[in-house]
Amino acid sequence: MPEHSRRNVLKSGGAAAAAVMAPLPDGPRPVTAPHQVRQAAQPKAVTDLTLEVNGERHRLEGVEARVTLLDALRERAGLTGAKKGCDRGECGACTVLADGRRIKACLTLAVMQDGRSITTVEGLARGERLHPVQEAFIRRDAFQCGICTPGQIMSAVACIEEGHTGSEDEIREWMSGNLCRCSCYPNIVDAVADAAKAVR
Amino acid sequence: MNTDVVGRPLSRVESRLKVTGAAEYTADVRVPRLLHGFMAMSTIARGRITRIDTRAAEAAGGVVAVYTHETMPRLKQPTYRPFFKPFIPIQSPEIHHAGQPVAFVVAQTLEQAQRAAELVEVEYEETGRPLGELAMGVPFLAPSGPDGPNTFERGDVAEGMARADVRVEAEFTIPMHHHNPIEPHATTAVWKGSKVTVYETTQALGNTQHVVSEALDVPLDDVRVISRYLGGGFGSKGPVWAHTVLACAAARAVGRPVKLVLSRAHMFTSNGHRAETHQRIGIGATRDGRITALDHVSTQQVTRGDVALFNSSEPIRMLYDIPHLSNVQRTVRLDLPTQSFIRSPEACSSHAQEAALDELAHALKLDPVELRKRNWSSRNMADGEEWGSNYLRECYDRAAAKFGWSRRDPRPGSMRDGGELVGWGMATSAHTAGGRPGSGARMTFDVRGRARIQVGTHDLGTGTYTIMTQIAGEVLGIPVEDVLFELGDSAFPLSYASGASTTAPGVGTAVNRVCSAARKAVIEMAVSQPGSPLRGVPAERVDTGDGHLFDTADRRTRVSYRSVIGHGGKPLHFEVEPVDTPLGYSTGAVFVEVRVDPLLGRIRVTRVVGCYDPGTVLNRKTARSQVLGGIIWGIGFTLFEHTLVDPATARIVNPNLSGYLIPVNADVPDIQVQFIDRPDPASDALGARGFGETPMTGVTAAIANAVFHATGKRVRDLPLTQDKLL
After folding, report:
1. Dihedrals φ, ψ of A157, to 5°?
2. What is the ipTM for the molecules in this complex?
């Protein structure tokens, strides 16, 4: 399998400039007559790819190169645990683990993760038994609205794994890539500190 | 009654769903045959579209339709408030602000819709230089509108000022702010024949239902709005905005469900903001710290098409016992998107008042806490009515003691730690709560003694699911595990919008009333049912607890709810109609420590102590979290948050979360929270008042006051960025 980078994927997508009209199985036609259509640059590159998400193989067919991992998970694999807050890597709501490393799923293309093992918030609990980080988030009220929580939790799992929980200040620093607008930050720090003890 | 259910720090009842990714937010809702919408936005702020070419967009892969002002179905401008926008976009070529929708694309996939929106070509004619800055506009006094009068007088300010021994006068500026909930606004519209189901990110199911009904000319009962989990709102999802209406119209036109999720950039021009505000405030006081007069003029942004003001003046009019007062709210028309309310609208005028009081205390050489206590009022000073309860003076004392305020050397610049300047400041927190139409509620008591309660209300993360479960458990005397509280569906009896700190008092009252009715009915059954251990016991002698009814004269004589209802053989149904909730005033005191690096001008908030009087605390855990949120919002408001408008183009230049800075974990200090926790007798929600917006108020001034204490500099222009201290 060739190694995809963000740059060569985008280049190959942009180079294929043929306008392809996707079939519309049951939708109406465009509202204006398509007279003298100018050829629009359309990323053509589509590929089939396999993601191992939460231990389960997901075969995704006909995925365009421009599809992010986040949109592949949410709109194609039906896994809406990871959230989209900004689509620019600023908020961290889409944080997932790729081969154990925390990444922002909106900042990587799905094809770049072909064959990788992805863990989302849906994959943390073992049946009815929650992960210690999930338990600590509940006990410490480390969320209010909950929209950033999947990202916070995945980031916390990695933060603990990375060993960045030596002090409250260290946790604050290493959890600062995940925004919480409800501002549960003190409770998030408490939850991560609790969970770090439980995991060890 | 069980008195151990309400107040308990119960973990959120929906928390398992939220930590496993199972809670279904609006953008997560899966619908068959779903299409994706995306909007193209105007790049100019003032003018009209002269040509719009959609051919390239329509030819792009997967595109189903591209609607412009020439092709979008006609929509009726809603008269229902709060639809604040004075026009619906994509209905005419007129451009009223930058970032106004000019085309609505529908495509098979999100990527296709986004790409096609970029391909819409628009040519504009500009009709004059747009105004984007308050300083460039012409202030005027708008007539009283639905939000009340823009002027307020008490006594005679000139006379009050003449009686003063000491006067201070200052000007404060607060920039434009955006709510920025992490969850973007989203709408999925699903039509079945002439009826529509709208999955919507809303703090007000009823508002969405009314506006969609009116704009699309659909009978109210044919519009169902669903919003079970909301990823924050902070006011942005309280009004109904145009994109919701457009998504519903597009779905009807294409004949398939359409999902529209706003981009972060769209959220800077589509769903309101805190208007930029300038305030001038003068305060006079006698030598012993009695305020004799206050003169306040605020000037805030509106658009060319509306005059609604949201940076309201309640703390000026209501809070302190000031005999002579004048308050004027002026407006300036700018070519910006429609302004709206955002968490704690009273924070702006609170900031000016609390910062000016610090200047007055300094001029009087009086402790700032003492100054506030000398001017405390037990009444709503706007109308003279006594509050149900008000323990603000106790809040000052408890928070001051916890903070160690008595060790403060009042001289600016007197406290240091190594190379850093240390400053301590304080302010009053105060926000109105409730005073709005209430809520209906419906309840079913099943034969196993379990209560299912339905209210068309919302949980923005404020804890509605949890506190209503607790109120029901408390009133009925059943374990919270036997209560199922459902919300987020307009098919349920509706509540007022979840904003203005109304949900706890409004919905809390409704849940109390419906559960009280149910409890009374079951007691009546228990004392009359053949074979019941309570048969013949006077109803007023029966109490409930632990899922049982018992004789208070002999607690061993008892019977379970399950047994009584089961004996009847069928579930019981109850419903209550809304009643208005009284206006409450939740107050508190907040103390802040800052450390300032004198070489870099960098300010860090290092310690916050707050003590609050919200009436009864319904859940100590969720209430504390709401306080943390308010305080941290106050930190962001004071130190970072600022929507920047380019004065030449009236375009917002930082419509993202890397340019618009909100606090991150590393910005947040040690925060200690205390509650008075005594019921307000005026509240039918077990003594709880609305409270969510109180904790943010005062924080802004407390920080600015602490910065003065550290540095001797008064920075009256927010945010307090480093450059302003150097």
Report:
1. -60, -45
2. 0.97
